[in-house]
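Task card 7
Instruction: Convert sequence to C-alpha cells.
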Amino acid sequence: MPLTPVLRRARRWTLPLSLGVSDGILNALVLATAAILHSAAQITVSLALRVGCVAFVTAVVTIFIAEYAELRSRLSRAAHQLSLSGRGQLAATNLGRRVRAEAIEAGLVASLSSFAGAALPLLVAGLLPAASWAGLVVALILLGVLGAALATSVQGSRRRWTAGLILAGAVVAAIGSQLNIT
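Output:
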C-alpha cells in the first residue's frame, strides 16, 4: 500500500520527534533532579523555560547538522552512481534546496519537541513547589508514553519500550541527582 504524503511526513519526523522529546526530558532530568530532590532552592518557571531554551538550541543545531550531512551524503552517493563528474552537482539543483529544507524542518521539529520535553516536567515542578517531585514523575510518564508510541511505530513490544525508556529515565535521574548540577 503506497504511503500518503501525511504518512511519509510522519515517518520522516519519527527521528527528530523521538530524539527531541527524549533529549529534552533527559536534559531536564540531568540538570534538575538534584535541585528537585535535595535543594532548598525551588524550581521556577523561569528555570524551566531556560532549560527548555537550552534544549531547543542544542537540538536545532545538532539535528540540522546530522540531517543535512546525511541527506547530502545520499546526494553524493546518487551523483556517484549516476557517474556525474562534477563535485556537488546534485546539491546545486532543486534536490539540494529540498535537502536543506528537509534538514531545517527536522531541526525545527526536534527543537520544538526538545523544548517541550525539557520544559514540561520542570514547569510542573515549578508550579507545584510543595510537590516538585511531581516533575520527575511527569518526566518518567512522558518517557513511557514516548516508548509506547515508538513501539507502535516500529511494531515492537509496548511493554518493553515503555519499561525501557522509563528505566533509562530513572537511571538518568539518579545520575543527575549524583552530579548535583544546581
